[in-house]
Write a structure and sequence with these properties.
Elements lengths: L14 E8 L3 H12 L4 E4 L3 H10 L2 E7 L7 H10 L8 E5 L4 H10 L3 E4 H17 L8
Parallel strand pairs: 1-2, 1-3, 3-4, 4-5
Helix pairs in contact: 1-5, 2-3
Length: about 140
């Protein structure tokens, strides 16, 4: 008789299917929710700046999505918060911004965003982009 000794390691701190979405624009939030729902992802929504630190400290998500142009959540501050905490600094960050905002793109890359894409690309390829950063295929940011 053989026994299966595989057990889930509960010490892994990262929730492999939870994505923290720091997007307050309802159009883009709905796009994210609908795109990731089909992949079995769980969406955790950050509605305010303090949610970034709070929601990543308890159980770090598998990835974070940021709207660099969000009017409520300061994406640059969110990146700095994530990168300053040893529990969250390795969480992949997918960001999107207006393709014409070169300074925003450069600053996001300098702060450590895993991947940044245009709003149009994000809208069209949300699930694929999330899977790329989770698989490590999205190394470096695209411009």
């Amino acid at each position: 008789m053989t026994t299966n000794s595989h057990q889930t390691d509960k010490t892994d701190q990262t929730d492999q299917k939870t994505i923290l979405v720091a997007v307050t624009d309802i159009f883009f939030y709905t796009k994210v929710r609908d795109a990731l729902r089909t992949g079995g992802y769980r969406i955790e929504k950050a509605r305010a700046q303090q949610d970034i630190a709070e929601k990543t400290s308890s159980t770090p998500p598998a990835a974070v999505i940021l709207d660099m142009n969000d009017l409520i959540i300061d994406a640059f501050q969110a990146i700095a918060t994530l990168k300053a905490d040893s529990r969250s600094k390795s969480i992949p960050i997918l960001a999107y911004a207006n393709h014409e905002e070169v300074d925003t793109w450069n600053k996001a890359k300098a702060l450590g965003v895993t991947k940044i894409v245009s709003r149009n690309e994000f809208s069209a390829r949300t699930k694929d982009l999330v899977e790329e950063i989770l698989d490590g295929a999205g190394q470096g940011a695209r411009g």
